[in-house]
Amino acid sequence: MSTRADAQMRAIDEAAEVLAKRMREWAATPADEREAVEVFTRRFMLDLNGHGWRLTPAARVNPLARRSAADPAAAAQRGAALAFAELAKVMEKRAVISQAEGDEE
């Protein structure tokens, strides 16, 4: 795992420990003295937010990294198609450069 993924897992583990502790304390409180569960959860989410947690959209997926479980060859075919398209662009640029150099002579 990457350093970033390790840090994220540590943060998740720490948040889970804090939530478990708070839930045990909430459950141990007599029912007539407990705060409403909605208040408890909102307070916890606000505390997480205060510690830097932010709800963010999922990151874009690298098209070469996607693999279909139904057809493992599909990823290789997509990768080959992308590589071929990039190669075609490079070859076209080289042809333009070569033509321009030939025109100068």
Overview of the structural elements:
The structure is a single chain. This protein has helices spanning 3-28, 37-50, 73-104. With 105 residues, it is mainly alpha-helical. It folds into 2 domains: 1-56, no CATH class; 63-105. The N and C termini lie far apart (56 Å).
Oligomer: single chain
Shape by Cα distribution: elongated
Helix content: 55-70%
Beta fraction? under 5%
Q: Could you give the distance between the termini?
A: 56 Å
DSSP E strands, number: 0
What is the domain tally? 2
Largest sheet: none
Brief summary:
With 105 residues, this protein is mostly helical. The chain contains three helices and no strands.
Index terms:
mainly alpha
Indicate the topology.
Elements: H1 3-28, H2 37-50, H3 73-104
